[in-house]
Amino acid sequence: MIHWGAEALWQQLEPLLPGLSVEVVARMGSTNTELLERVRRGQRRSDDRPDTRGGQHRHDDTLPCLLVAETQTAGRGRQGKAWVTPPGSALTFSLMLPYAPADWSGLSLAVGLAVAEALDPPAARAAGSAPRIGLKWPNDLLLADAGCVGRKLGGILIETLPLGNERVAVIGIGLNLQPRPAAAPGNEAAALPWGYACAQEFAPGLDAPQALARVAPALVQTLLDFARHGFAPLQPRYAARDLLAGLAVSTTLAEANRGVADGVDAQGTLWLRLDDGSGRRVAVSSGEVSVRRLMAGGAPC
User: Fold this and answer.
1) pLDDT higher than threshold 90 for residue 76
2) Which fold has domain 248-298?
3) Does the pTM of the predicted model rise above 0.90?
């Protein structure tokens, strides 16, 4: 049995998110889907709410909840892509909270930065060394590799629902922790456009409870700061981990099909310098494009 330390984590986070529950389940289809359904049920009925301490399961309210699944069988990535996690191979969790930032722009970038810095803190690296965890706009974490943009370490899926005059945000995070054997049944690593990476490549022995203990407090604090200040104060730190900056990319936008990624601005918008000879810069907003690095022959690295 895995010891998650849910009570200790709840004691640390509940003062920041009053009413928070911390729940761990052995198996679930999708933590994001479950929390979205709870919000919908909570909007339809009003029941007495049980104690919110770690380990108490709530099924129909809209108070903050951190929901962890040891095994996730029907996780969802961006654009509906499946995310399946065999037992013990990954950390998969979602955080739900009522949320009303002044500007939502750049939220997925802020979340990615929080996770990257929690697992790969600048203070732990040798002076002048590059980050091990890089960020691929708008919602992927990659393990940086020499000669290649990197291999996929994790992903972020943010979904929202209206709640009165504000909204509820459900922030799902999946992180690969263990190597995936090449011969394992259902191994999709070879088919992943960005390859497969895991946290134990740079943090040997790191397990899911340890990763959660690092990531969850950083995530909560970043969300609170983002609600007050937006993405702008985080932009320089994001730029230090931006794996697309300066690389040839392709997008699904007809007016900006190919170009060179030219960084993100204070609102988290990706800028593309077109390679049509005009030198024109085009803004690319989250949800509109799929960005791929182009190598010789147009294949992604």
Assistant:
1) no
2) SH3 type barrels. (2.30.30)
3) no
